[in-house]
Write a structure and sequence with these properties.
four-stranded mixed β-sheet; alpha/beta; 29 strands; 17% strand
C-alpha cells in the first residue's frame, strides 16, 4: 500500500513501539504534498476561517505560541473533518521595533551601527534576518503539525498588505482621523523612537523625592516644590497651584527665579493641582511630562525640551549639555545642594515606565508625531458591542476589560522613528513648506505639482498593519477579492489576554470602520504558559521551555495534548514535564491497543465492517460509549472547553476501550464462534476508526499513522468525516449490564488484592442477586464473569446459600461471596467490613442532610432530587447487607 491510496484491508505491520520522529516528518510532508490543508476545495460547503495571530520574525516560537497554535489547529482540523471549507491562514509580522532592535544588537556586536550602513543597506540586513527566522518558524509550524494553508501565507510588509496600510492611512487622514502635531509621547532613548502607551511596562522602582525651594523674584520668600526627576527642572516654565488654595492665592501672577537657570517663570493657578498633596505647588515642565504639557497648553506656556533623542542633555540644558540624563541628575542634585535650595531628599518608591523592547526607562518627550484620533473609531466599536452586533468573548468576562479600555482610550501615536516598517505615506516639499498624504510618490507629486519632494522618514507602529490583519490578508482593499467575499468575517480569533488592547481592540475598530463588520465571531482568550511554580517564563529566570525540545523528547502529539487539555479558557496554565510524559504514555496506550486490534483484524476489509445485527453486551456497550463520547466532545470543542474534552477522551480510550472492551473482545476473537468473532472484529475496527478521528485534532500524527494501517476508505484521516451522534447506537440496557459486570469483576479483583490471592489462582464465587432481572443479566454474561474472575466454581442464584468463612462485597443489585477457607482471617474480614460500614454510614448521613435541606429540595431540578433519593436507597441497601454480614461472621 502506498500512503496516498485507500486501504481496504488492515495491515499488521505496526512496529512494537511508536516512533514520533519518523511519523511526524513523514505525515506532515504527505499532507502538504497532497494539498489536504488548502481551502477552497469545497465550494458548496460552509466556510470556517481562522487567521493566525502572526508571530514576530524576531526569533523562535516559544511554548506560548505552541499553545495558541495547537488550539487553532484543533478547531481547524475538527471543522475540516465536519465538512466545512476550512481556511487557516498563516503569516508573520515584521514587528518593527522588536525586529530592528534585534538586528541592531547583532550589528553592535560587529562594531557597526545602522547609521554606519545607511537606511538601504540596513534594511537589506533586516530582510536577511526576516528570511532566516521565517524559515525557522516554518520548520516549527511543521514540527507542531499545523494544518495551515501555505498557499495563502502573508507577511505584514508584503505588497498587498502594504497597499492596505496606505489605503487606511490615507482614508483616515482624509476623514480627519489622522493628524500630525507636537505632543508629549513615550520616548525610548535606546531605540530612539516613540512608543504607544501599551508598549510601556511599569515597574516599581526605589527612587527619591527631591524637595526644592524656588525663590520669588521680588525676594519676598519662596515656594517649595518636589520632583523625582530634578534634571527636568531645566525645562520648567511655571509653578502651578490650585486656584482655591488660600496659601498661594495672593502669589498667583507673580514670578519665581528658576534655580541654576535663573530664568523668570510665572506662578499660575490650575485645577490640575491637588491642594492636599505635598506642598500644594508643582513645577510645570511642558516638554517632559504629559500632564504638564496639557497645563502648558491651557496657559500658553513655552515648551522647552532639554534632552535629545538619545536621552542626553541638549543645548537648552546649558552647562549640562552632553551628559546622560541620569548623570545630569547626580550633578544637578549636587549643584542644588551647594546652592542651598535642595532642602530635603526622601526615599520614594514609585512606578516607572520602561520600554517593553529595550528595557530602558521611558522618557516623556515632546515630539512631532502622527496620531490616530481614537474616540470616533472607539464609539463605533462600543455601539456594536452594546447592541449585540459585536464579538463574543470566551470567557465573557474579558468583554468588560475590552470595553473599559476602548471607553477610556487616548489618541494613538502611530509614528515610529525606525527604518523597518511601513513608511508613513506623507510627502513634503521643503521649498514651499507643503505636505501631502498620498497612496504613492507619483500621486504625491501630482497633488503637489512638484518633483522636489521627500517622504516622511518615520514608519508606522507595527500594530497599525496588524490591526488590518483579518481583512488585509484576504485581499482588502480589493472589494472583489474572492477570498474576502468567502472567508470574511472570520470565525474565531485565538489569542492571549495580554494583547487584548494591543491587537484585538484595534482589529475590531479598524474592521468596523473599513468593512462595516466585526472581524471575527468569537475571540477565544487563553492564558499564559507559566513554569511549574506558576512564574512567568523569562530569559532572566532561565525557566523558558522550547517547544522543539519538548517535541524532540516526547513527540509533538504529547506536547499538543498536554497543552490543549491542561487549558481552561482565560486561565494561565503551568507547564509540567510529568504531564507531557503522561500524555506520551497515553499515546503509547493508544498505539499498543491499536497493535493488538490490528493483529486480530488480519484479512478484514473495509467493506466487511458491519455493526448491524446481533451483538454481544460488550460490543453494544462500547458502541454506545463511543457514540456518547463523540456527541459530548463535539459540544465541548464548540464551547472551547478543551480541558474537559481531554478528560473525556482519556477516560473513554484508557478505561472503556483499552482496559475493558479489548479485554472482553478477546473472548470472541480467540473463541470458536466464527460469527461472534466476525462481529467483534467489525465493532473493534469501527470503534477504533472513530476513536482515532476524535483524537486526531489533538494528536494528528499518531492518529494518521494508526489509521493508515486500519481498513479504511479515503486518503487521509485529516479529511475523514467527524464522528456524528447516531441514535441507533444508543444501548442503555447494555450500559446497565456492563456496569454490573465491571462492578462484579472489580470487586472480586479488589478482594483478591486485599488477601494477596493472585489472578492466576482459581477461586470459588457465589453471587446472590437482588432480583430476577439481575440474575438474568448475570446468567447471560456468565462467560465474562468466569473468564475475568477466574473461577473454579461459580454460582449465581436468588436462593444462593451464604458460605462460611467467605470474603464478601456488595455491588448495586447483588452480594458477592468468595469462600476462601484457609486464606482469610475472620478478624481481618470483620475489620474490613466495619470500615466499609463506616464509609456507607457517612454517605447515608450526607445524602440525608441534603434531602432534609429545604433550600436544596425547593431549588434543585426534579431529576437531581430523584438521583439523590436513588443514591440514598442504594447506600442504605448496601449498608444493611454489610451489617448482616458482620453479624454472620461474628456469630
Amino acid at each position: 500500500m502506498t500512503e496516498n491510496q485507500d486501504q481496504q484491508t488492515s495491515s499488521v505491520e505496526m512496529p512494537t513501539t511508536y516512533d514520533p520522529k519518523a511519523a511526524e516528518q513523514k505525515w506532515h510532508r504527505y499532507w502538504l504534498e497532497n494539498g489536504f490543508f488548502k481551502a477552497g476545495q469545497r465550494p458548496d460547503a460552509k466556510p470556517y476561517t481562522i487567521v493566525i495571530p502572526p508571530p514576530n520574525v524576531t526569533g523562535m516560537l516559544h511554548i506560548g505560541h505552541a499553545l495558541d497554535l495547537t488550539l487553532q489547529d484543533i478547531l481547524t482540523r475538527t471543522k475540516r473533518m465536519q465538512g466545512y471549507d476550512a481556511l487557516w491562514l498563516p503569516g508573520m509580522d515584521h514587528a518593527g521595533i522588536a525586529t530592528q532592535t534585534r538586528v541592531e544588537q547583532r550589528l553592535r556586536e560587529q562594531g557597526v551601527s545602522r547609521y554606519d550602513l545607511g537606511r538601504e543597506k540596513f534594511l537589506e540586513q533586516v530582510w536577511a534576518w526576516k528570511d532566516q527566522y521565517a524559515g525557522t518558524i516554518h520548520e516549527q509550524w511543521a514540527k507542531m503539525g499545523a494544518s495551515l494553508d501555505y498557499s495563502r501565507e502573508r507577511f505584514t510588509l508584503d505588497e498587498g498588505l502594504s497597499q492596505a496600510v496606505r489605503e487606511v492611512f490615507v482614508k483616515l487622514y482624509e476623514k480627519g482621523l489622522i493628524y500630525r502635531g507636537k505632543y508629549i509621547i513615550n520616548w525610548d532613548p535606546a531605540a530612539r523612537t516613540a512608543l504607544s502607551d501599551i508598549e510601556v511596562e511599569y515597574k516599581e522602582v526605589n527612587g527619591h523625592l527631591y524637595h526644592l525651594q524656588y525663590p520669588l523674584s521680588d525676594g519676598s520668600g519662596y515656594i517649595t516644590v518636589a520632583t523625582t526627576r530634578p534634571e527636568t527642572m531645566l525645562g520648567d516654565t511655571a509653578v502651578a497651584v490650585h486656584p482655591e488654595d488660600e496659601r498661594y492665592r495672593h502669589l498667583v501672577g507673580k514670578t519665581l527665579r528658576l534655580p541654576i537657570v535663573d530664568r523668570e517663570i510665572p506662578i499660575i493657578a490650575d485645577e490640575y493641582v491637588e491642594k492636599e498633596f505635598g506642598s500644594g505647588a508643582v513645577k510645570i515642565t511642558p516638554a517632559h511630562d504629559p500632564n504638564d504639557f496639557e497645563v502648558g497648553l491651557r496657559h500658553n506656556l513655552p515648551q522647552i525640551n532639554v534632552m535629545d533623542e538619545t536621552g542626553k542633555m541638549n543645548a537648552e540644558a546649558g552647562k549640562y549639555q552632553g551628559l546622560d540624563r541620569f548623570e545630569c541628575r547626580k550633578q544637578i542634585v549636587k549643584d542644588l545642594q551647594e546652592m542651598g535650595v535642595l532642602i530635603k531628599i526622601e526615599d520614594h518608591v514609585h512606578q516607572v515606565g520602561h520600554s517593553e523592547r529595550t528595557g530602558v526607562v521611558v522618557e516623556p518627550y515632546l515630539s512631532t508625531q502622527w496620531f490616530v484620533k481614537m474616540k470616533p473609531l472607539a464609539e463605533k466599536a462600543i455601539e456594536a458591542q452594546k447592541s449585540g452586533n459585536g464579538v463574543n468573548f470566551v470567557p465573557d468576562r474579558f468583554e468588560k476589560i475590552y470595553l473599559n479600555w476602548i471607553e477610556n482610550v487616548r489618541d494613538w501615536c502611530v509614528s515610529r522613528q525606525l527604518w523597518w516598517g511601513h513608511r508613513i505615506p506623507a510627502w513634503y516639499c521643503d521649498e514651499t513648506g507643503e505636505m501631502v498624504v498620498a497612496r504613492s510618490e507619483e500621486e504625491a507629486r501630482a497633488k503637489l505639482g512638484r518633483d522636489d519632494i521627500r517622504q516622511d522618514e518615520d514608519v508606522l507602529d507595527t500594530w497599525f498593519s496588524s490591526a488590518l490583519w483579518p481583512f488585509s490578508t484576504l485581499g482588502w482593499p480589493d472589494e472583489d477579492s474572492a477570498d474576502l467575499k468567502r472567508y470574511f468575517p472570520t470565525s474565531v480569533l485565538s489569542t492571549g489576554y495580554d494583547i487584548i488592547y494591543f491587537w484585538v481592540a484595534r482589529m475590531i475598530f479598524t474592521s468596523l470602520e473599513f468593512t462595516g463588520q466585526v472581524p471575527f465571531k468569537d475571540v477565544l482568550i487563553h492564558g499564559l504558559v507559566r513554569d511549574s511554580e506558576g512564574r512567568k517564563m523569562s530569559k532572566s529566570l532561565g525557566n523558558g521551555v522550547d517547544p522543539i525540545e519538548v517535541i524532540e523528547k516526547y513527540g509533538a502529539d504529547a506536547m499538543r495534548y498536554m497543552l490543549s487539555t491542561s487549558n481552561t479558557p482565560g486561565q494561565d496554565l503551568r507547564f509540567r514535564w510529568e504531564r507531557v510524559e503522561q500524555a506520551r504514555n497515553f499515546a503509547n496506550k493508544i498505539w499498543n491497543a491499536s497493535r493488538f486490534a490490528l493483529m486480530n483484524l488480519e484479512g478484514v476489509k473495509y467493506e466487511d465492517i458491519d455493526i448491524s445485527g446481533e451483538l454481544s453486551t460488550a460490543d453494544r456497550w462500547i458502541l454506545h460509549r463511543m457514540n456518547e463520547t463523540a456527541k459530548e466532545i463535539t459540544r465541548l470543542i464548540d464551547a472551547y472547553e478543551f480541558g474537559e474534552t481531554g478528560r473525556l477522551l482519556y477516560n473513554f480510550i484508557w478505561d472503556d476501550l483499552c482496559d475493558w472492551y479489548i479485554e472482553f473482545a478477546k473472548l470472541s476473537l480467540y473463541g470458536e464462534d466464527a460469527a461472534a468473532k466476525k462481529k467483534t472484529q467489525s465493532v473493534l475496527a469501527y470503534v477504533l476508526d472513530r476513536t482515532l478521528r476524535m483524537i486526531h485534532p489533538f494528536m494528528p500524527f499518531i492518529s494518521e499513522e494508526i489509521w493508515q494501517h486500519l481498513p479504511h476508505s479515503g486518503e487521509t484521516i485529516t479529511l475523514a468525516a467527524w464522528p456524528e451522534y447516531d441514535p441507533a447506537l444508543e444501548a442503555p440496557d447494555a450500559v446497565q449490564e456492563m456496569n454490573l459486570l465491571i462492578d462484579v469483576i472489580r470487586a472480586v479483583r479488589n478482594i483478591r488484592a486485599e488477601v494477596n490471592v493472585p489472578m492466576s489462582k482459581k477461586i470459588e464465587l457465589v453471587i446472590k442477586p437482588g432480583s430476577a432481572e439481575v440474575l438474568e443479566v448475570l446468567s447471560r454474561n456468565e462467560h465474562y464473569i468466569r473468564r475475568f474472575c477466574n473461577t473454579s466454581e461459580y454460582e449465581a442464584s436468588l436462593n444462593a446459600g451464604v458460605p462460611d468463612k467467605a470474603m464478601t462485597a456488595v455491588v448495586t443489585g447483588a452480594e458477592l461471596f468468595l469462600p476462601l477457607s484457609g486464606l482469610i482471617d475472620i478478624g481481618q474480614e470483620i475489620e474490613r467490613l466495619t470500615k466499609e460500614l463506616d464509609h456507607l454510614n457517612k454517605e447515608v448521613e450526607r445524602v440525608e442532610k441534603k434531602l432534609a435541606n429545604e433550600g436544596f429540595v425547593s431549588k434543585a431540578p426534579a431529576k437531581v432530587i430523584e438521583e439523590e433519593r436513588a443514591k440514598m436507597a442504594d447506600y442504605s441497601e448496601k449498608r444493611d447487607k454489610v451489617l448482616a454480614r458482620i453479624a454472620e461472621l461474628k456469630g
